């Protein structure tokens, strides 16, 4: 499928629902999408599996990979490294569309410093109160971390609203999950017309 040559990037503040949206999309269209497995130096959350959810690595391994220029993008977020290796993306693109869950810094690197020509989608929560509720309800972060993430979210939404250099192809609001999923599919169809939904 030639569509597999353009990766899809889903960007947005922590808690807006990127992971949920990507899981649903992949569940519903398993044969079309692959999710590149990122590297991270953060510890696994309960139930996360090394090599499936992330490649969990030490700081030393991660910085070695940076030196070897193994990453399409990497970022230092909330004191931890996260990165997408070129190999991981190409592994997926060989047979499927590739979805990348990365922040705006990563998206900037992929869009402007690689030849991958991604479709970049920014996802927002309907408002900051809802975002805060989602982060609290998820219950995976401490209060301090939630506060840092909410501050970062304000900055990230400003960046999306400015959309300098047209980094984002589209900005979507994840209010209703099913509606947002359909909007993502519409964006993908627009930019990758060869895709056939099953
Ligand atoms: N449309 C929605 N309506 C209500 N709740 C939602 C919606 N989308 C996601 N959620 C919930 O919001 C919480 C955050 O979602 P998720 O973990 O997917 O966010 P994320 O953007 O991937 O966050 P992170 O970047 O921190 O991994 C989850 O508990 C999820 O079930």
- Biggest β-sheet, characterized? 5 strands, parallel
Give the C-alpha Rg: 16 Å
- CATH homologous superfamily name of the domain at 2-36 and 96-191? P-loop containing nucleotide triphosphate hydrolases
The residue-averaged pLDDT reads: 92
Categorize the overall geometry.
globular
Strand/helix succession = EHEEEHEEHEHEHHEH
Number of helices: 7
Can you list the ligands bound to this structure?
adenosine-5'-triphosphate
What proportion strand? Answer: 15-25%
Under the CATH scheme, which architecture of the domain at 2-36 and 96-191 would be assigned? Answer: 3-Layer(aba) Sandwich
Instruction: Tally the beta strands.
Output: 9
Q: End-to-end distance, in Å?
A: 14 Å
Strand order of the largest sheet: 2-7-1-8-9
- Summing up helix and strand content along with how strands pair, one would put the structural category as alpha/beta
**Under CATH, the topology of the domain at 2-36 and 96-191 is which?**
Rossmann fold
Helix content bin: 40-55%
CATH class descriptor of the domain at 2-36 and 96-191: Alpha Beta
- Show unreliable segments: none
Organism: Acrasis kona
GO molecular function, one term: ATP binding
Keywords: ATP-binding, Kinase, Nucleotide-binding, Transferase
EC number: 2.7.4.8
